[in-house]
Design a protein that fits this description.
With 74 residues, the chain is mainly beta. It is 11% helix and 41% strand. It has one helix at residues 45-52, and strands spanning 7-16, 19-29, 62-70. A three-stranded antiparallel β-sheet has the order 2-1-3, with helices on one face. It starts with 6 loop residues before the first strand and ends with a strand.
């Protein structure tokens, strides 16, 4: 965790209906840094990126909990 992150995610959970796709993800991303999400197929990389871009808002039955802030704003 950093002092002034560009993007902050705290305790992010994503559900597709009853299925939980992401469980309690917390991360800080600094300005000017590159972050890579690496993991096996099906571990939630794309789901987390879609959550940051609010693309999951268009998926019926998708629910996101937790907190995501950019420059300190929700």
């Amino acid at each position: 965790m950093t002092d002034a992150p560009k993007i902050t995610a705290r305790n992010v959970n994503v559900f597709y209906g009853e299925k939980q796709a992401i469980n309690d993800v917390s991360i800080d991303n600094d300005t000017g840094h590159v972050t890579a999400f690496i993991g096996p197929s099906g571990c939630g990389k794309s789901t987390f990126l879609r959550t940051l871009n609010r693309m999951n808002d268009t998926i019926a039955g998708c629910r996101v909990t937790g907190e995501i802030r950019m420059d300190g704003e929700d």
